[in-house]
Amino acid sequence: MLTAWTIDISHASPRAFEDYEKRHRREFDACFNNLDKIIKFLNAGLKMGGFQVGFLRSEGRGLYRVGQTGVPGARATRLYVYPDVHHAVMYILGIGDKDTQHKDIAAAHIKTDELRRQTT
Amino acid sequence: MTTKHTNAADAAAALTGRKETQQRIQMMADRSEIVRALIAMRTSKNMTQAAIASRMQCTQSRISKLEAGTDDSLSIGELRAYLSALKVNMSLLFDDHTEPAAVRIKHLVFAIDGLLKSLGETAKSVVDDQEIIAGINRFYKEVLVNFLIRFDQNYKQLQPIIQINAPQQSASEALQIHSRKAHTHQTKAVRNLAHDA
Questions:
Q1: CA-based nearest distance A110→chain B, Å
Q2: Is the pLDDT of residue A107 over 90?
Q3: Confidence band (pLDDT; 50, 70, 90) for B197?
Q4: Pick from B5, B25, B66: which is nearest to A33 by CB?
Q5: Which end of chain B is more exposed for a tag (fewer CB within 10 A), N or C?
Q6: Which residue of A has its CA nearest to B51?
């Protein structure tokens, strides 16, 4: 039987998401819409890594970024997530743009390392 | 604040603390059904975006953008070309709500007839495969059961409104009678269907 995936936001900073939504609403919405697509594919039985879509990229150490591709003239936005495939939980870790991606990825990697220890 | 959610719109709204966020993203998700279906079909056929792009004679970047967007950003031409690249046929059903019910029913019946003919064509190509025939029989039985249940429910809803005379037998009685007969007639029905097609 398929397990329905849940989305966990306990490792994300609400303040960062509030700010990002205010500054780049279209990109924010597009990222979450693409996350919705991913969750629906996983709920339909597809595996992480088992489907190739342009808006989902691995950033190593279990971290993935969900992009906003498709929004004309948009600011390149990345929603950072960690999929815990053993428990069917998608952890939202952060959001940022191209300018802050090195800092965002470094911060998200610290969280994924911790989550991987806890969940595997 | 709830930290676990079953969909992205709820998760986003919990992060921003705004109900409006949920409504916006949910609306986008509802308007992405066709795009999601295209990605699902491509994935199930183990096709890459590059392969689709090659058949559509466009760039992979175009496919990537198309798949990351909503149904609103998809043109009919692109939809047709994408489906053609997947070797999937498209059928459209226009149901005009301003038409009288009788006209709409007629159109829907024609649509069902068209689908049954298409099923007959498919059955014709597999008529010697007993496993598939058995599958089609099971399918027919399921469809019939669901149809009769819905017919019965609709009939009960309509009865007080339009005061239909009581039928000689209810749909559930008809279903029981049919179930007894169906077992012996199913294979023959599928074969006939294949033959007619």
A1: 20
A2: yes
A3: very low
A4: B25
A5: N
A6: A52
